[in-house]
Design brief:
The protein has helices at about 5-30, 35-60, 65-80, 110-115; strands at about 80-90, 95-100, 125-130. The protein is α+β, with helices and mostly antiparallel strands. It has two domains: about 5-60; about 65-130, Alpha-Beta Plaits. The chain has a three-stranded mixed beta sheet with strand order 1-2-3, with helices on one face. It is rod-shaped and about 75 Å long.
Length: about 130
């Protein structure tokens, strides 16, 4: 799915949810202070659009690169191409990955992992053991 379309869809849903919540708040204001209910409704109605955007952006933002690395390595483990893996992370350098090849794993596992992870991990930061 196109990320922009997903963001717009989530924005619309979040806006509807906030409109509903803010309507209930304005109804409560109507019971407590009827003179202020229209002002409260109008302010909350307009604020819903402003509040919905950052919420939608937060809900649809891409996951961190580290999560993607873990996901790809876990998929390789589940498929039986690797037995185990460790990911060593440092703040000032890309992660270092150590992988143990499965018995029936591909002989070019280093290249497979390099292509799979792309630019997230340089080839010299991947170690494949037997």
């Amino acid at each position: 799915m196109n990320p922009a379309m997903l963001l717009m869809g989530v924005y619309i849903v979040v806006t509807f949810v906030l409109q509903g919540l803010f309507f209930l708040v304005s109804e409560a204001v109507d019971k407590l202070a009827p003179d202020w209910s229209l002002l409260a409704f109008l302010i909350l109605f307009l604020c819903a659009y402003g509040f919905a955007w950052p919420i939608a952006v937060h809900l649809t933002e891409p996951k961190a690169e580290d999560d993607q690395i873990e996901k790809e390595l876990l998929n390789l483990k589940r498929s039986g191409k690797i037995l185990s893996y460790t990911v060593e992370r440092r703040k000032d350098a890309p992660p270092f990955i150590q992988v143990t090849r499965a018995v029936d794993g591909p002989t070019n596992l280093h290249e497979v992992i390099g292509r799979l992870l792309g630019d997230a991990v340089p080839a010299n930061r991947i170690s494949v053991g037997v």
